[in-house]
Amino acid sequence: MALVTGASKGIGSAIARALAADGWRVAVNYRSDEDGAKATVAAIEEAGGTAAVLAGDVAEGSPDTLFTSAEEALDGPVLALVNNAGVRADNLAIQIEDEDWDRVLDTNLSAAFRLTRRAMRPMLKARYGRIVNVASVVGPRANAGQANYAAAKAGLIGLTKTVSHEVARRGITVNAVAPGFIETDMTKDLLADVVKAIPARRAGQPEEVAAAVRFLASDDAAYVTGTTLFVDGGMSA
Amino acid sequence: MATAVTPEAVEKVVYDALPQFGADPSDISREATFEDLDVDSLDLAELSQIIEDEFGVQLKGDDVGQIKTVGDAIDLVVKRAE
Q1: Chain A nearest CA to B41, separation (Å)
Q2: Of A28, A163, B45, B74, whose CB count within 10 A is highest?
Q3: What is the CATH number of the domain that holds A54?
Q4: pTM of this prediction?
Q5: Domains of chain B by range and CATH?
Q6: Which are the catalytic amino acids of B?
Q7: Cβ–Cβ gap B42/A121 under 8 Å
Q8: Is A223 considered catalytic here?
Q9: In A, which residues are within 8 Å of B46 by CB distance?
Q10: Is the ipTM of this complex over 0.90?
């Protein structure tokens, strides 16, 4: 079973649908958008897949609760984890309040660590596992106004690399994808002329990020670990 | 329900678990070091999970860092359960 955090809309929803199309039973986690999560599950079921909604804020409470609920709903261990849930609270560093720093780091980085640590249990037992962290081109690259987000996403890439070394010999891979400018609710307020800075001259689609995650979660990617796959129309090249 | 923690019960679980990490069953004894058995830090982390599942006793990373021999591990679990 695959657990995708923040899967009610945007990139997370596309990832859940792509993994389901590959035969994974998918736990569709959401924090606030229950309708979106239900729509994602409905789309998966309509396409012949199996999925269940999984309520819970990844930054709150114990990952045990999420994992137990997922395992009960879909009857099996979590063998793929996609840490996708993310929030933004943009401001110039000088104006970022502690609360906005903490909130972004908690959800985008600390929650991913805690879920990864918890996911090791079933994965070590199974001698198999796939962890994919959804990072960003922001982090490896600068983006004024996103010091908190950049720190979290760069941290996620560091986490990815180190954990990949720790568990590689158990058949567990840990990778990241780094989306560039993707058309979602989360980016709709960003200026359209960002597109001019993208070599591909267009924004990416959530499905294009999902395709990369689908590959990293597949058996074809068994020898790919610790890497970050940029899905950014060439932005970071 | 967690199994009651006795030195004998812990010994059995540890002895049964070690071969899956590549330890040769004939080399396993209380005196054997994990290094001799070719059991590394990830194996010990996994052994800690097995112990937690079986006995409900949690071993911290710092604890696990201290143990050298199979006997150390068994004694630590028994001590933590007290």
Answers
A1: 9
A2: A28
A3: 3.40.50.720
A4: 0.94
A5: 7-81 (1.10.1200.10)
A6: 40
A7: no
A8: no
A9: 124
A10: no
